[in-house]
Amino acid sequence: MFDIQEIRSQFSILDREVNGKPLVYLDNAATSQKPNSVLEVCHAYYTELNANVHRGIHTLSQLATEEMELSRRKIQKFINAEHDFEVIFTKGTTEGINLIAYILTQKLQKDDEIIISYLEHHSNIVPWQMLCERTGARLRVIPIDENGVLQLDYLDQYLSEKTKVVSVNQVSNALGIVNPIEEIIAKTRKNSDAYIVIDGAQSAPHFDIDVQKMDCDFFVFSGHKMYAPMGTGILYGKCEILEALPPFHGGGEMIATCSFEGTTYAGLPFKYEAGTPNVGGNIALGAAVDFMNRVGHENIQNHENALLEYAQRQLLEIEGLKVYGEKAKRTGVVSFNLEGVGIASDVGMILDKMGIAVRTGHHCTQPIMSFFNIAGTVRASFAVYNTFEEIDRLVEGVKKAQRMLG
Ligand SMILES: *Cc1c(COP(=O)(O)O)cnc(C)c1O
């Protein structure tokens, strides 16, 4: 049974008011709220368990280590990785992609190619540009059509023996568009030896993830967008690939032996986890996975899809409102503008006065904004705790903004 009030009761922050109105939190694509079960795990960690992991023989260190490794196995199951040591703790998607781009440096040469898409977040653009600068490789970008849909015939054209990396997101954060990654991965495997990187920042909170079935080489996501604390994230990499590539950061935890003559590296996953990790946060990420499992992935998807459909239908009834990617397959996000209202942030400010939190601006995706020839959009994004009444309030707020600004 899916009981929305019971779910909402697990998120204390949803009871607060903003500007004298009950909070309507629709900025989940930027970060989700955290259920009390996750907050309690954070609190319990610091009140009962805090110790550095993997080093100590004392009891607290062992307990903290066990809890963090248990969390790793929960995440392994969550994404269906073959081995728990393929699951690397990071501080988020940005760090994950930077890590991959860094460790691939030696694998690229001048005139090699990296394929990304027009729909990428800046954190799936800039690390590859930096890799291009280091190596002389070139970036190729799969274009979109006026619905925001990737034009995959360009991928066919671009793929060649020069292609060394294909990195795309599964779901676009700016528009919520669900990309056909199965097809992208199949085409890439068939026509190149490229490493395949999937940015799952916006898919892990909404979909069942199966990295084995997907057959990607890397899959990265952020904990804070899926009910876990800030500063948590995961890099999944295929065992053979991670074993063959060099480390990223050097330091404690990641060595087997260290002397001034030279150092040997630890095995996976520790080779990629130099330094003291965010132990409490990593344990709480496991609790966030527990929360999602309790609610049920199918329930989460069904509810969020119903919210999106309802929101889009209501919003499109407003004259002069344009939804970007209206006709594309989407999840979790509706991104729009009002005709004649120059600046999305004006709408956002009026909504905020009504207690409604949305994001306005370019959403770290300036190329998409350039494509549509706009400075930004108003973006409402959904999580499992949002309600149809909240969407009614959003629609009412947008109408009010239109009256005030039009
Ligand atoms: C949020 C986001 C990122 C960056 O994630 P951080 O948690 O800020 O590191 C990358 N890609 C997509 C699609 C995102 O939504």
TrEMBL record:
Function: Catalyzes the removal of elemental sulfur and selenium atoms from L-cysteine, L-cystine, L-selenocysteine, and L-selenocystine to produce L-alanine.
Name listed for the protein in its UniProt record: Cysteine desulfurase
GO molecular function terms noted in the UniProt entry: cysteine desulfurase activity; pyridoxal phosphate binding
Cited Gene3D superfamilies: Aspartate Aminotransferase, domain 1 (3.90.1150.10), Type I PLP-dependent aspartate aminotransferase-like (Major domain) (3.40.640.10)
Gene Ontology BP annotations: cysteine metabolic process
Organism annotation: Chryseobacterium arthrosphaerae
Taxonomic path: Bacteria, Pseudomonadati, Bacteroidota, Flavobacteriia, Flavobacteriales
PROSITE patterns reported for this sequence: AA_TRANSFER_CLASS_5
Cofactor(s) recorded in Swiss-Prot or TrEMBL: pyridoxal 5'-phosphate
InterPro entries the UniProt entry points to: Aminotrans_V_dom (IPR000192), Aminotrans_V_PyrdxlP_BS (IPR020578), Cys_dSase_SufS (IPR010970), PyrdxlP-dep_Trfase (IPR015424), PyrdxlP-dep_Trfase_major (IPR015421), PyrdxlP-dep_Trfase_small (IPR015422)
Secretion signal span: none
NCBIfam families: sufS
Keyword Translocase: no
